[in-house]
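pinging the channel bc i need a second pair of eyes. not urgent but kinda urgent?? the chain im working w is below, pasted from the shared doc
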Amino acid sequence: MLFERIVSSGLAHYSYLVGDRNEAVVIDPKRDCEVYIKKASSEGMRIVHILETHRNEDYFVGSMELARRTGAKAWHADSHLDYRYGEAVQPGQRWDVGRLVIEAIPTPGHTPGSMSYLLRDPAGIAWVVFTGDSLFAGDVGRIDLLGREKAPEMAGLLYDSIFKKLLPLGDGVLVCPAHGSGSVCGESIAERLWTTIGLEKIHNPRLKHRSQEEFSADLLKSKPERPPYFSMMEKVNLHCEPVLGALPRPRPLAPNDFERLSKEAQILDTRMELGFGAAHIPGSQFIWLNGLASFAGWFLTYDEPILLVNETNDPCEPFRILMRLGFDNVAGYLAGGMLGWHMSGRMSNAIQTLTVQDLCSLLDRDEALWILDVRSERELESGGRITGAQHIHVTQIPEQKDEVPKDSKIYIFCGSGMRSMIAASYLERHGWRNIAVVLGGIAGWRSQRCPIKK
């Protein structure tokens, strides 16, 4: 028997490979799908079915590519949508996988046609339920994807799905959602790598509301952010075009070629914040590698080529992350990195950095400073607010940049300095010149004049 969860780093996306004897099924596959083929083959199994829990918004689904490479049949949920591939799952539909049985359970709410899949072991015992984005560890799916006007209706559907279909499956049933902590598909997904129906009944705060009215009211208070790239993913995941052949590797570019192409491209620098702050190519957008999946959709566009600058001179990992988000427009990467750029005699920009202790000292000398705090509202509530700071969440900088003055020095603050550098690089790209990034985060704050307000 085979049961494995495959995690897509950065996206906090979970997909699953389940098999018995010589057959296997993949649930919610990612686009770079060779991992499923290799793992199934190593166990002597052939992938025969691909199941989707819903039309995904946050990553490019790999169903069509995996079907092309294995001959497996792709099954999609949300049958009301105009899919160009596979077949629609029917309520109660069953698949035999060796001695295992998988059953489709309609669980609308996150999307109108979301499906969960109940896996029964060889003895017929309900063992695992794959809940997609309906039920997470510590949270439930967002209900805003059809717009705020539809949210009350979707909340009611989700209540029925969870309380009338999923929770009655039994406390011992494993819950395997499509996302873990850090995903944009939930507001407060818990860091429980594995959970059960019983654990969620006890520890999931959303499930404390036993009536539909209370449950819906709680969800309607939430206003999760909707990354702009969601709209693109909703479109491409209806067509799910396969990648023909092996995934292309971005080509190395000498500094002169890189500079020439950059005039009509986006420069993405995935190095760490200190290296970027010390020297970067003018016009670069900073997003560190481990933050790429979370922030690329806010700061990059699909209609311009992307040129990469990265730490190791190996573009594979950033390219894979971008490709999972549908950014197929990577035109190349800087061969030799910033060392090669400087050795070719080309100029670079720098962004000042200072420690949080340095900023506190400046404030305590009664200097009037313009502080931009780019932390989330939840961080402000839990960690405290800096007296006198202006708050714009990092993902809202593109929309609210005009609220930041150009005639003052801007000190940008977050929890560590990483998101501050994202904001600083964006502002620099759009004409701000007097910027400083504060390193250290809220833990090191010691200002007497500007204390933290809890």
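so The first strand starts at residue 2 and ends at 8. and The two ends are 52 Å apart (CA to CA). — does that match what u expected or am i reading it wrong
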